[in-house]
Amino acid sequence: MNQTRHPRYKVAVIGGGTGLPVILRGLKKLDVNITAIVTVADDGGSSGVIRDYINVVPPGDIRNCMSALSEADADLLELFQYRFNTDDDFLAGHAIGNLLIAALKEMKGSLSEAIDILSYFMKISGQILPAAPEPLILQALFEDGTIAVGESKIAHHRKRIQEVNVMTIDGKPAIKASSRVVEAIMEADMIVLGPGSLYTSILPNLMIEEIGQAILKTDAQVVYVCNIMTQLGETENFTDADHIEVLHNHLGSQFVDTILVNTTEVPKEYIINQPNKEYLLQVKHDFNGLRRLGCHVISSEFLSMKEGGAYHDTDKVVKELGRLLDSIRLLEKNTLVERMRPVI
């Protein structure tokens, strides 16, 4: 962990999957102290195999966040992210970074210590914290009353989700957050949620009791970066207001202060021919609904069309986050001046 910088702002980014590292790479360009809080409910791919054989949280999202925040040279990063070919028998599909995280955890007995050691060697700018100190199981209750267990299985059901929760391996409610997570949330100037899978990347973190309580208590500005596309088996036919309503319902409070939404239309040919069939249609806008839910809306042309898909333009998103941080600090400064002004 890099301790030499003394940035103006503290930002905690909460999530998982492919969206979290994208935002982290952009935030490195701002004058911020970054904390990445990463989901531990992933049970698919290399991460899922490792968590089944070793008592360690799934390392894949942690590895990707390390790569995003690393200042190491390109060759080391390429090695860290290298994934063995499918014809490599036992090692097939495993990323070297995943194996390193698991090995260090086994050596030191502590995942937090393992991440700190690896962060030092990888020249990480900021800190990366697993949401919980142990692997968790994600469970979804559908509106028809049926239940799916396991993050990788939920979307396959193609049913409307009523709620999700997380449990420990032995079936108990997930209460404890990892060391430093609550502190990072409470000290942050801004909390960024997303972009990422609403039910399987973002909510698994918030449903850990200590994290959910911290989110409701923090003075930080809570910002949701809304997905551009709806997602198969999770947010089919969702508007941006639907995303916020789901978040608020899960924590029982209107805690999202600001939402970033893309206003650029995704061309139909991109929707038809996009390589990732997981994403279906563009998220529709419901600005009146967002205002009723207490959200300040920042809408702009955040769309970046590349590799046949529709993604967020990281630079534009981070630029807006930077402006929002500056406005928060200016408001705090003006409020302090008003409080210090003598009463006549």
TrEMBL record:
Location of this chain's protein in the cell: Cytoplasm
InterPro entries: CofD, CofD-like_dom_sf, Gluconeogen_factor
Keyword Cytoplasm attributed: yes
Swiss-Prot/TrEMBL keywords: Cytoplasm
Functional summary from the UniProt entry: Required for morphogenesis under gluconeogenic growth conditions.
Family statement drawn from the similarity comment of this UniProt entry: Belongs to the gluconeogenesis factor family.
PANTHER family: GLUCONEOGENESIS FACTOR-RELATED, UNCHARACTERIZED PROTEIN YVCK-RELATED
Protein name in the entry: Putative gluconeogenesis factor
Source organism per UniProt: Facklamia miroungae
High-level lineage: Bacteria, Bacillati, Bacillota, Bacilli, Lactobacillales
